Amino acid sequence: MKYPQVASQILGQIQQQALPYGSKMPSLRKLCQQFNISLTTARNTYEHLEQQGWLVAKPRSGYFVSLPLNNERLPSTPKFTGRIQQIEPVQHPWALSDEHPFGYSRTQPNWFPEAAFRQAMKQACANELTELCRQPHFLGLDKLRQTLSHHWQQFELSIDPNELMITTGCLDAVRLALKSCTKDGDAIAVSSPCFDGLLQVLAQENRRVIELPCTQDGLDLTQLEVLMSSGAIKAGLFSSNHLNPLGISLPTEQKQQLAQMAAKYQCPIIEDDVYFELGYLQQPLPIKHWDDSGYVLWCGSMAKSLGEGIRVGWCATGQFKQQAIEVAAPIFSQPPLLMQAALSNFINNRQYQRHLSSVRSKLQQNMAEYRQYLLQNLPDNFRISLPEGGTVLWIEARYSPNEKPLNELPLKDLPFNLRQGSRFTTRQQYQNYCRINFGWALSDEFNGNRLHDDLANLVQALIELG
Ligand SMILES: Cc1ncc(COP(=O)(O)O)c(C=O)c1O
Question: What is the CA(252)–ligand 1 centre distance, in A?
Fold first, then answer.
């Protein structure tokens, strides 16, 4: 058999989902036995399928079934010229516990690796309790900072532990970064659409905002450069990986350019990288990787990858370390040292890596199921994003068949709070968009209802609106 024939048989299995997305392919040796082919033919088969996007090679792990090349019906990403705006904090019901799984970006609670985390907690209690109940170091637990720095080294991301400040979650880290490098009234550039939690922090800290268009090709760097060079903005606040809600990641060249622009114009970039470790296919690098000048402040947390209740985040403060210490003093509020120590043990026990690989493949599976269901059941005027990481889908309802624009989707009438597109902007935009979290499996239940039934209800309601 020649490799195109083998490849087409494998492709058939992928398309019929006999080989589901994310599943590991047999080793080259097994493939040789299975099809009675040579090692060269086996290698050519996988390379061919990889070139077509059906397989992805992971270093030292082999080949995996990738996302289908179905990037039709993607939501549109409008282009516009940004305008600096004053924004007010918005009153939202932030009662997370009651929120339906579709509404808030998070994973299923029973994915939490309880036994392994309990073990890590026990270790901390058994060996270091007295120490952990004493005065914390103002940067956070030394051991955790060392552990995190070591953990990131495996993706060739080099972060000096002395640059790291432990915070109470990612938004707390963003707030710290913002206050360390900008002041009241300053204008900050963000990408559009922008995660509403970031807009809320900017509003609470009385910063002005300018949204810049972000498309499948990335951020509008031409507009950004004008703003940076003229001093009209004092910082940028961007995510570079698995942007919430768009689901895209910035191209590598843009990340490099952003780090260079930050240095050239001495204009800090605050990077919110909370989805950094939730890529299904590969581990992307942050802008911070290319930061030689210390003008990139890198923020993240374990909220999405492990659990929101952990409340451990970080800010790699770059050259703003002294300012960050002054902003945080005199309280130095941080998550309890016991939690910091448990997390450090959990990572050192190699349980975090194990947990991440399971979460990534479950998320990929969920994403494919939600997306497929929505594409099959919503009419063609609905567009759905195709993320390669993270937990959310971005849905656009295009103009209705009679060419009348849809009114703002009245999602509040649904039995669960889906995030409306207009929450992700300071402009009059995205009224016809909404965001749905797929962090819970469709086979799971919430408040006694199967999520699959809830999704069917949602689809019905969206169709009625269209
Ligand atoms: C982009 C982004 N940053 C930060 C957060 C919140 O992170 P944390 O709970 O660690 O503050 C979220 C939560 O949805 C998010 O989507």
Answer: 22
